Amino acid sequence: MASTLAPATRETAVAPKAAARRASRARRTAVAWLFLAPFAVVFVVYTAIPTVAALGLSLTDIRGADLRTPFAVDFTGVENYVRLFQDDTFVRDLLNTGLFVAVGVPLTMVTGFVLALALNSGVRRLRGLFRTVFFAPVVTNVVAAALIWQYAFHTDGTVNKVLGAVGLAGPNWLDDPNLAMPVVVLLGVWRNFGTAMVLFLAGLQAVPQDVYEAAALDGAGRWRQLRHITLPLLLPTTLMVSVLLTVFYLQVFDEPYLLTGGGPLGSTESVALYTYRQFGAGEFGMSSAASFVTLVLVMVVSVVQFRLLRSRT
Amino acid sequence: MPNLSRRSALRLTAGMALGAALPLAGCGRSNDTAATAGAKKVDASPATGTVNVWAAQGDADVLGTVVKPFKAANPDVVVKTTLIPNAEYYTKLQAAIAAGKGPDIAQFFPESQAQFLDSSTLLPVPDGLVDKSSFFTSLWDAGVVDGVAYTVPWYAYTYALVYRSDLAKKAGVEAPKAWADMEPFLKALQGAGAARGLGADIGWDIFNGQDVAMYAWQAGGSLVTSDGKWNLNTPQMAAALKYNADFFTSGAADTSGPTFLDAQPYFVSGKTASMITGPWVLGQLDTAAKKKGWTSAHVATAPLPAGASSSVTFSAGGTWGVLAGSGNADAAWKLVRYLAAPSTQVAQYKAYGSLPAVITAWDDSAIKNQPLLDAFFTQLKNTRAFPQISTWQQVATRLGKEMEAVAKGKETAAGAAANIQAYAESVGTGRK
Q1: ipTM score for this prediction
Q2: Which pTM value belongs to this model?
Q3: B408 — contact with chain A (CB < 8 Å)?
Q4: CB-based contact, B3 to chain A, within 8 Å
Q5: A53 to B94: CB separation less than 8 angstroms, yes or no
Q6: pLDDT tens digit sequence for A19-38
Q7: Half-sphere exposure of B128 toward its Cβ, with a 13 Å CA cutoff?
């Protein structure tokens, strides 16, 4: 943080002596730390220490019954992690989570981007209304939404009634291992495309209008403008949206928990749901190990995304 | 962190992790010291001081009314009751115990209390506090580990067959006595107009696991060996899984419904004609039918049909335990003794409908004059406690998921029995 403050002031300083520069630098660092202190304290107490403690727990055989004497447990090394990857359920849940990310992230981004484009250049009237409507799912209580979705995708639900009206026999969506996952992903997309849309919209509005005018003068059509101006200039926004969504989908919990409970036949159970279940069963060691695997995944995927997209921004 | 290079940041993280792990490595488990039964006797003198009671919302809602006579007889005692929502109850209790801020008395559920039955958490029930033979055997057994009792039964329930008597009469069938009679019975109810003979539980969770375990008992199986090892890959377990799955494959039940919330509306409307469920539904069906007296005119109950061995079921309900950290154990035990008395349990029944865990309380006219409860009384005398193993809930939850695979034809009964044994061995029995 302090290093970002430095360049702005360095230019105004006229050939200072080295000692004076060091002193002022130390003071600036101290001031920066002072500003950072409230966050740093909260971060250390509520994030860093619990994270480290969880790592410690994941290396022991601690269970619910050990809570009174949390230090009287055995150090078991990576045994929990070995057990985790030997558990078919965990491996299945990892694959399910991978599917959430692989399908959910692109779908959410494309939906959000297309709507942002439409709102930015296509829709003139009622733009505020559309923006509000599209953003509404983000602020809707997910418990209520999931309940409505449950009714909508019930055997005798709205979706199947609509299908029946056009002569199609609707399946039992949430009880079919092949169909439940698409519905759960769809709920995730529905809940998140508004966030993507708003971020893309902000990005679009930051693109200077004269660039488009210049391109139009050079004879570039709408499609070439989109490919060669809009998309490249939106890369920083795209990176942010993609990292945000990936982190969200890697930890997906609400949607499967509320809509299907992880079923049918475990086809929609995510790693976060697995972690929650292990914790509920008093398997604190296993639960901590599973959450650490999630943390590592989030870190790896984020770093990869930054590497892939940052070089061009 | 501006002046921190990536390498030193990594080193710092590793150091912190090691720092967290080292004290743990230094400690390790100590050998548990066995609790000694027969703690200090609890006399008949009045209780004094403050007694903090924690209970789950539900049956304990009426506790304030039920303990009024106790407060009157013991003027120097203050009873403070804290009610906690059911879903968070064990989590909060565990956290409070871990922090050393637990109550004096806590409510437990006999079907899921094994994790608390330990001398570091609960005090052994003092000798002579209550007569253990006055309770349904399985409810008392649910609190006993290595010969030491930690809990005192409070209320009781078990499962029985609840069916539409009008449809059975129309079809000319009697309640099934054995497993083999079950499918013809359910099919006959379908013939009398129901869409499905059985409104089966399709949550595929711990409750299904408990059902399958109960069927395994009925087939003559046991869940653990006499030396305390998991014994789930048995022909009896396979038979239990198949018996339950056959409801679905034969068309007597449906894997897609009714869901938990639909169970009673479906039963009342005649979409389903029977349920394997607890006694509380009897008090709720009139509401579901929106008609007073509907239940007595349309519903009958029967003990569950017997498997190759018996018609045994599991017992559930509520129990009380006094925490090891209690500062007022004497008064706490006096309150528990009061709650276990037949007259208190009848008062609890009258206030909330909780069925007594004390057998003699069932002689009270308030309970005796209800014919629909007879099947539950018969069944309660033929119940067994789930294994007193702290990982049982995990195993039962997994068993419920295995049941789903068998019911949907994705796994054979024998394969599921092997799977559940492998899983149970991987989580162990929680003992070292």
Answers
A1: 0.75
A2: 0.82
A3: yes
A4: yes
A5: no
A6: 888 888 899 999 999 999 99
A7: 7
